[in-house]
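Record now logged underneath.
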Amino acid sequence: KNRLVLVDFWASWCAPCREMAPRLRRLSKLYKGEVAFGKLDIQNNQDIAKQYKITGIPHLVFFKDCKKISSVTGVKSIGDIKDVIDALLKKVK
């Protein structure tokens, strides 16, 4: 249904992850119907974090058709994340 899926790999003890949460909520409203947003707590899902080689958080992974197509690590501004999403949406038309 959505052209792109963004998964936020995070942990409850991670202050930068908590800083990113409201930015991702805002972006999820902006891209409703185009991008599906999800969260994965690495503390409770260590196998999945290892599978995607998550070495730092917050870590955003972008998927298209269940395949990882891009990722970014660290605290990012809304504008920076929007730039990544817009570029990926152009590629996955």
In short: The chain is about 40% helix and 30% strand.
